[in-house]
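Re: NAP structure - here you go.
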Amino acid sequence: MIKVGIIGGSGYTGGELIRLLLNHSQASIDFVYSTTRAGKPVTSAHQDLLGVTDLLFSGEINPDVDVVFLCLGHGNSTQFLEDNTFSKQTKVIDLSNDFRLNKDAKFNGTMFVYGLPELNKTAITKAVAIANPGCFATAIQLALLPLAKEDLLSNDVHVNAVTGSTGAGVGLSSTSHFSWRNNNVSWYKPFTHQHLGEIGESLASFKNAIGELYFLPNRGNFTRGILATAYTTFEGSLESAQKLYQDFYSEAAFTHISDEPIHLKQVVNTNQCHIHLHQHKNQLLITSAIDNLIKGASGQAVHNMNLMFGFTENEGLQLKAGVF
Ligand SMILES: NC(=O)c1ccc[n+]([C@@H]2O[C@H](COP(=O)([O-])OP(=O)(O)OC[C@H]3O[C@@H](n4cnc5c(N)ncnc54)[C@H](OP(=O)(O)O)[C@@H]3O)[C@@H](O)[C@H]2O)c1
């Protein structure tokens, strides 16, 4: 058994990590650090775990854990690692965007590997630190990487994606307030969302020409999940596109191509990404769906941990969606 520490324990991704790791056969939770709830039961923040765990939040870290997950807002992970020292053996998995871009990947002599297993599996298995991808970034990259690899993404790409309210974290804001969010839909940060940087770096990693990416993020009136649609010029047949995607994801543990049109509920509460392809004239429409908190955050972080420690890829992540 490896010993795990979680920082940012009372937040949404922290809560999902606790839930996943309590069901992991090779990992045990050593501490769940909280700045606001030290000494209180974990269930005081995560009522879904009542009867499942007696863990208490801690105000102290154990520097000798095998791996620590940082479930903190942007900028706070850097600050936390500056203020706290872990043993040389402790691996780090960070869920914020502090270390995702190439220019930020080196911190105090440690290299953070971008933790998208479908792109970087070999590097992840050897990594000591992981920058876990963003949630929109995960859904969009998985929709576009096969085209980028085959040099088929040189035309403009239009992406429209809608996310649930948990994407904004546990803190209440004017646009996550029930009265605003319920029965409502809106876009935000049109064409300028912060995940464009990491998406662009991954697409460029194949060294092929990449067209302009126009990304319109939307806030949906549901709590969990991301449904992303992307379309671009594609001159081949639908069958050739399907083969290309099947081949690219043939070794992927959690990304699957669906012949049928997909919908959000088939992936919510799972670590799956489902992808569907549709052709209209010379346009290829790619739809991808993930759970923002699992495949887009905590589940992908556990997948990365499994790869780093040589565990079976789907250990702790065999989850079925509640579709009906
Ligand atoms: N939500 C998503 O769908 C999603 C998806 C992918 C990536 N992410 C990224 O994952 C990270 C965590 O997201 P989240 O949704 O879990 O956020 P969250 O719900 O806001 O939780 C963050 C937690 O961090 C702790 N915290 C706050 N300020 C801190 C500080 N200065 N120092 C140490 N701890 C502090 C708080 O927990 P305590 O009060 O217990 O200390 C807080 O509940 C973010 O960077 C986010 O962008 C989120």
